[in-house]
Amino acid sequence: MFGDRNFISRDAVNSAAYEQLPWYDVIRCRAEEIRRAGLRGETAGSAGPYIALSRLAGAGGSEIAERLGETLGWPIMGKQLLERIARRHHIDPSLLELLDESPTNLLYEALGHLLNSELISQNAYLSYLRKTVRAAAAEGPAIFVGRGAQYFLPLARTLNVRVIADEADRIERVRRRSQLSRAVARKLVHERDKSRAAFIERYFHRDLNDAAGYDLVVNSSRLGVDGCVDAIFAALRARYIIPAEPRRRPLAASAP
Prior knowledge:
Radius of gyration: 21 Å
CATH superfamily: P-loop containing nucleotide triphosphate hydrolases
Distance between the termini: 41 Å
Order of helices and strands: HEHEHHHHEEHHEH
Strand content: 5-15%
CATH class: Alpha Beta
Number of domains: 1
Structural class: alpha/beta
Strand order of the largest sheet: 2-3-1-4-5
Number of strands: 5
Helix content: 40-55%
Shape: globular
């Protein structure tokens, strides 16, 4: 079903101007209308929509985000959030990497500034992150990857997605991408999963692996990257971009 991009009925499209467009171009056009309205200061309630992708390490979340961004024409905000923080606050990006999706320990908080005066606290990083996510969101529709962005975005205008995959597939993807041994790749996958979950638990008091916290959970081992992208598109269309209108049945012809 999700592999066939013709499965969405045109009856759901509200404007005749969109009638001849493929559905994914309709999504792009409607998102651009929302973005331009925001730039004109119109209808503050129309901000977004956004996609917030949470992912297991090696599940293909970054690749899925890139495919979504290419098709929708939306910017991707993953590592880009760190780059924005670094530019805005004149912070060495390598220092932000120490805090990125990782809970700091008490030793770091207590002795960090004594060892390096340029280090920032986790609380300062979270404040910068929150402001940066919201500033990026104000620019228009976007795809946010990890970093707890879903907790800074308006729930009513955000499609929260969790990307998972079988552990063997995740390890293999990391092994190939980083040219590591299988043992090292396995350790890296486990460490990233643990660190990301601890980051969300400590600073947002949420369980990253709780499926109830997401609108959609996609398994790239079962669906493949393309199948996951199609499923996300379908959920995005159903919830935000093209409000479905009830199909009007023609009046029954009167009996002769």
